[in-house]
Amino acid sequence: MKQNVMLTVASLLSLLLTIIHLTQDVMLKAEGAVKFPIPVVVFAVWLYGTLMLSDRVWGYIIMFFGGLIGAAMIIVHSKAGVVSNSGGFFFVWTMFALSTTGWFTAILSARGIWTTLRSRRPTLPAQ
C-alpha cells in the first residue's frame, strides 16, 4: 500500500475517532467540551488537509498536528483522571485506538514532510 494512501486512511480514522471521543466528552459533560464551534473548525481544517492537500507540505503539516492531537488525548485524560472515572469500555477503547492511530498519523506525516523537503533541496553540481 502506498504511503500517501496509508496516511490518508490513518488521518481519516484519527479524525473519526477524535470526533467520537469529543462526542463522548460532551455526553459525559467534561470540562471545556461545550465550545462547539472551535472543534468543528479544527475538524474541517483537518479534513481539508487530509483530502485536498494530502501530498503537499501543508497537508502533511495539518495531518501531523491532527495526529498529535489524537495521540495526546490519552495522556491528557489519564492525567486528569477522566479515563478511570468514565466507567465505559467504549470510552477507554476509543482512547487507545485514537492514541494509536494518532501516533501512526503523526509518524507517517513527519516522514512525508521529511521526504518532500529533502527532495526539494537543490543538488550541488558535480566538480
What does this protein look like?
With 127 residues, the protein is an all-alpha fold. It has one domain (3-118). Helix content is 80%, strand content 0%. The chain has helices at residues 3-27, 37-51, 57-80, 82-86, 89-120. It starts with a helix and ends in a 7-residue tail after the last helix. The model has no long low-confidence stretch (mean pLDDT 84).
Helix/strand layout:
Elements: H1 3-27, H2 37-51, H3 57-80, H4 82-86, H5 89-120
Question: Brief description of this entry?
Answer:
The chain has 127 residues and is an all-alpha fold. The chain has one domain (3-118). 80% of the residues lie in helices and 0% in strands.
Q: Please, how many domains?
A: 1
Biggest pleated-sheet summary: none
Q: List the secondary-structure elements in sequence, H or E.
A: HHHHH
The helix-and-strand class reads mainly alpha
> In percent terms, what proportion of residues is strand?
under 5%
Descriptors for this entry?
about 130 residues; mainly alpha; 5 helices; elongated
